[in-house]
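Mods, move this if it's the wrong board.
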Amino acid sequence: MIYENAYLYITPGREEEFEQALLTAAPILKSAEGCVSVDLHRDVETPGAYLLRVGWASLEHHVEMFPKSEQAPRFAEAIEHFFAKAPELRHFAADPAGTPAGE
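Not the wrong board. Structure tokens:
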């Protein structure tokens, strides 16, 4: 399992609207093959900044399969118009050793 960490920067004044839109759109993302979890965290130091943390079964589920899915454009359409700039994406292993925790 891997985690996609998407650093999102929202247009000032639209934060609450974005949070509601993401709550509505999260089930779309969660229904994508390989999506394990979706969590949103507000940055306490940078106004309008968020961390969207998505758990995926594998890197391939996110970078190869998800972009071709029917969920990808629907999810993007629901939230991308809130972005003040392009998101920054990073992928991390589920644990420091690079293998899922507990295995």
